[in-house]
Amino acid sequence: MPTSIDKIEHLREQLRHHEYLYHVLDAPEISDAEYDAMFRELKDLEAAHPELITPDSPTQRVGARPREGFVKVRHSSPMLSLDNAFGEEELRDFDRRVRNLLGNEEYAYVAELKLDGLSMAVQYRAGNVALALTRGDGETGEDVTENARTIRSIPLRIPKRSGHWEVRGEVVLNKKAFAALNAECEAANQKRFANPRNAAAGALRVLDPAITASRNLEYFTYFLFENGGFACPTQHEALENLKELGFKVGTHWKRCRNIDELVHFCDEWETKRESLPFEIDGVVAKVDSVAQQQRLGWTAKAPRWAIAYKFQPRQAETVVEDISVNVGRTGVLTPGAVLRPVNIGGVTVSLSTLHNEDEIERLGVQIGDTVLVQRAGDVIPQVVRVVRKGEHRRPFHMPKHCPVCGGETVRAEGEAATRCINTNCPARLRESILHFAARGVMDIDGLGEALVDQLVNQRLVRNIADLYRLTAEQLQGLERMGKKSAAKLREHIEQSRKQPLPRVLNGLGIPFVGERTAQFLAEAFGDLDAIMASSEDELQRAEEVGPKVARSIRKFFHEQRNRELVERLREEHLQFIYAAPKRTGGPLAGLTFVITGTLPSMKREEAKERIEAAGGKVAGSVSRKTDYLLAGEDAGSKLAKAQELEVKIIDEDALVRMLEGTA
Ligand code: IVH
């Protein structure tokens, strides 16, 4: 069917091109919606022609199902670390050693930003991604190929460079993605990640590639290997080559002709680090010439031709003047340290989160103590530890009554959080409206904090459904609201009625139900009423919904007030039904196989597992519903039956090609 093949290949080329523009060059030329439409078109075509699916298709980044564990694999050559230089003097010491060892001949450095992530090697064979390994202990790493394939800045194929070669680089999570992930953790009452590096490591080292795919990891390369050595004679050419091949390379590297230029580069980026979308913790300087690198050689741990210049940690000491409490939309009371204002890396910090009672206890912090505060890629600074106990220190106790409404507060057994249990608490209402309106939830642009405060205080809105009844006159009566902005806001509220069910579910603010869980629930049940009517056991049918989340959902819908809210939202015609896009899940999805005879290399059980892992089904007997008979030696009656019913008969090789998508 040449037309389908052509169309499929054309779509793949287009998608690869736009992925490259978006994820590598950060310069998209089409909208997300256009990309999604193209992606869906390819997915549908591939679903209709599963035999045409190839592993390098943009649809095949996320494999069929989670794996059981990670396999350790030896690196092609050790992935060593770098020695550190703290401060200019140590950097100049390093340069002196290089100069002495090179006997005063000319040399240059390539200075690159030191991204705070984790290193990973990706091996290509015949132009395709073959193996991705974490650094591990440097000698052997963990095989994270399936997960790495989901990172969109890693090209799945590079046909113009055949043979066997390898890139090395850094897997990172940008500041925005990091903050979003932590917000999600917080909403789900899970521990936050301390820095983007931990978060990136957590996202890469999960068993389910679908989770890695959802985390927006990026991969910046800095080494290109071929035949067991560097592929280019200089580091700057390697970076240029990597870029040329379609990899992401840090844009701010510089070739420095001497140590003064290098020192200047380090100083410059130490002050400019805030302006970057990524967290960096220093600069890596490498002697540019590979021939000179070879002469400088390695110590047991690190190369003598490179150094990591580490920036000053962004920490400072200050006094905890008070501990205040903030009430969130789920009623959770979050304590925060009110700090004597202090400058940390150019930003004045006066507030730092303390998360919950347990964290305060762990830190042993009291009001009046001097603490070490750190900013680590996160907007909210953290207290690292108590440096000195205050002379007149006094302990903090979680209030027994909500600081906003005076209602009772409760800490449930087994939970770290203390909550205000008054569902009418204005603080909760305020936060729940902000959450409902937020970007990525119901997307009601223009409904910011100042406005929500007025709506709540003037009792114009008592629950989120009231938003849909706001009149232009009511809005115009508010501070800083003109006729035009009121009309615009009303339009945005109107439009939000069309948001699909997963967003509505997320918007309800059910504890532990964030964007992902809402999506899974909508996919599993297809309808809000079905979710509301489900028991705890039934709810766990949805992916990633365990007993804790299920209990929380039941509890939420058990409350009369919440049921009334849902009814009000129904009257406002919000989307309660979800038509999930079809999932194909794997190159053999929708196909039924029967296996017979002895296969040349695979055991029958193994063939079955591999077919199922690729989304296919294996049946016991041949019927008209059978798509393929996988026949080995000494096949008997099943073969005859398949011939009679004109079922396609394939051998092991053909199956392998289908599994690899090259059939
Ligand atoms: S070169 C043997 N270049 O920093 C050479 N590393 O402190 C090793 N890193 O393990 C790596 N950006 O995880 C190199 N442009 C860069 C880097 C970089 C970040 C990380 C990498 C490495 C660690 C060494």
> Beta fraction of the residues?
15-25%
- Structural class comes to alpha+beta
Overall pLDDT level: 89
Shape: globular
Low-confidence stretches: none
> What top-tier CATH class of the largest domain fits best?
Alpha Beta
| Total strands | 23
Fraction of residues in H or I helices: 25-40%
Name of the CATH homologous superfamily of the largest domain: DNA ligase/mRNA capping enzyme
Bound molecules: 2-(butylsulfanyl)adenosine
Helical run tally: 24
Query: What characterizes the major β-sheet?
Result: 7 strands, antiparallel
Gross CATH architecture of the largest domain: 2-Layer Sandwich
How far is the N terminus from the C terminus?
Answer: 14 Å
Task: Spell out the blueprint of helices and strands.
Blueprint: H1 2-24, H2 32-48, E1 72-74, E2 84-86, H3 87-101, E3 109-115, E4 118-125, E5 128-134, E6 140-142, H4 145-148, E7 164-172, H5 175-187, H6 196-204, H7 209-214, E8 218-226, E9 229-230, H8 235-245, E10 254-256, H9 259-272, E11 280-287, H10 290-296, E12 306-310, E13 315-327, E14 332-344, E15 347-353, H11 357-363, E16 370-374, E17 382-388, E18 409-411, E19 418-420, H12 426-437, H13 449-457, H14 472-476, H15 483-496, H16 501-507, H17 515-525, H18 528-533, H19 536-539, H20 547-558, H21 560-571, E20 592-596, H22 604-613, E21 617-619, E22 628-631, H23 637-644, E23 648-650, H24 652-660
Parallel strand pairs: 2-12, 20-21, 20-22, 22-23
Antiparallel strand pairs: 1-6, 3-10, 3-11, 4-5, 4-7, 7-8, 8-9, 11-12, 13-14, 13-16, 14-15, 14-19, 16-17, 18-19
Helix pairs in contact: 1-2, 12-13, 16-17
Bound molecules: 2-(butylsulfanyl)adenosine.
2-(butylsulfanyl)adenosine binds next to strand 3 and strand 12.
